[in-house]
Write a structure and sequence with these properties.
Helices cover 39% and strands 14% of the residues. It is α/β, with parallel strands linked by helices. The radius of gyration is 21 Å and the shape is globular.
């Protein structure tokens, strides 16, 4: 077996299941699970209709590169959303469809990293655990960039020493962030692009939450590249998905876009990897990327839930409502694992301990003392969950 597998840590939800073992929630309270970032709203009906109407496409092997129409639709969406020059995105060279960004974010490190260099892969801390697993199995060492209350729940990139940047070959970004919902600004992105040029590393920007914002659309890495004159998107690759944007996690549809000189060998890797998107899924994806009305409705629903939860929880907590995403990164009055276990045992509400989403870096686990709450259920369930959380801490 690959010895690097031994370095993988249990997934956060495996840890959560163990934490809850032996705890019996009250039978008179229905279970409300707010630990998983899985949209509970039904996807738009038209996506399913298009999918069903193209099931005859199952008779054909799909191409790894996807249909031209899908790539063209994605290119048009990127251009409009991030205000890119009209001809900036070439659908033939700058876009690859993927079966959800989870597998793409993992596979990307395998294609980009040369383990002989003993490289570092930098990532935010707390983080989406795929970044860490991808780095380890590619033969690199993860380097954790703590995102704490002191740094506005974003990594302090300027505090990273040059000796670390010199060893960096891949930087994972997540903006809007999981779990904090914070957004990396355009000027910071431009600065990171300059560092990538100076120290010769690649930026992989996970932008899967980019469409779930309040008033201001978060900037993207490709937008920043154009803003600093990097029209070829050199060293810049972005990952987008329909899972959150269109409440369609089961569709397993997303895309990778950016530097053509990186995407070409990555395409070769994916050809051998055998991960082409089924033809019916491609047609459904074209329909989803072509419609913004359902996305605006998604944003409205998530903000409605945020507002309701804030109104209830602000009486008991110092609540920071993030500018994007659908999570609260809630500071707990006791240890985060104890908070999560007791909340489940006493109120039948499941949240995810922040320490399960982070690693100790510079002697600190920046997830400790926080829980991630995913406001993905219907409004009435979110209100009920918030009331139960408030009741739980009333006697603290």
């Amino acid at each position: 077996m690959n010895p690097r597998l031994d370095r993988l840590q249990p997934y956060p939800f495996e840890k959560l299941a163990r934490l809850k073992e032996g705890a019996t929630p009250p039978s008179d309270k229905s279970a409300i699970t707010l630990s998983i970032g899985e949209p509970q709203d039904p996807p738009p009906h038209f996506i399913a209709e298009v999918l069903i109407s193209h099931l005859h496409g199952l008779a054909k092997y799909p191409k790894t590169k996807g249909m031209p129409q899908l790539r063209e639709t994605i290119a048009a969406w990127l251009t409009a959303r991030f205000r890119l020059p009209a001809a900036a995105i070439d659908p033939e060279r700058h876009v690859l469809p993927v079966n959800g960004t989870r597998e793409a974010l993992f596979a990307f490190a395998q294609a980009v990293i040369d383990p002989a260099e003993k490289p570092l892969v930098l990532m935010p801390n707390p983080f989406y655990q795929i970044y860490e697993g991808a780095a380890l199995l590619a033969g690199a060492e993860p380097y954790y960039l703590n995102a704490t209350e002191k740094t506005g729940f974003l990594p302090d990139f300027e505090a990273v020493p040059n000796s670390v940047w010199q060893k960096c070959r891949l930087l994972y970004l997540c903006s809007p962030g999981n779990p904090t919902g914070q957004v990396i600004g355009l000027e910071t992105l431009k600065g990171l692009i300059e560092k990538a040029r100076r120290f010769d590393f690649v930026i992989a920007a996970d932008e899967c939450y980019s469409e779930l914002y309040d008033d201001t659309p978060p900037p993207g890495l490709l937008e920043a590249a154009v803003a600093c004159g990097n029209d070829a998107f050199s060293r810049c690759v972005v990952f987008h998905s329909l899972s959150k944007r269109s409440s369609a996690p089961g569709l397993r549809s997303g895309f990778v876009a950016g530097d053509a000189d990186i995407l070409q060998p990555y395409f070769l890797y994916r050809t051998y990897h055998g991960c082409a998107m089924p033809v019916p899924t491609q047609h459904a994806s074209i329909a989803a990327w072509s419609d913004e009305q359902h996305v605006a409705e998604n944003r409205r629903r998530y903000r409605e839930r945020f507002d309701a939860a804030e109104a209830i929880l602000s009486e008991r907590f110092s609540v920071t409502v993030p500018p994007a995403g659908f999570y609260f990164w809630l500071k707990t009055p006791i240890d985060d694992t104890e908070f999560a276990r007791r909340l489940f045992a006493e109120q039948n509400v499941t949240v995810l301990p922040g320490s399960f989403l982070a690693r100790t870096g510079d002697g600190v686990n920046p997830g400790q003392g926080h829980v991630r709450i995913a406001w993905v259920h219907p409004l009435n369930e979110c209100r009920e969950a918030a009331e139960r959380i408030a009741d739980f801490v009333r006697n603290f």
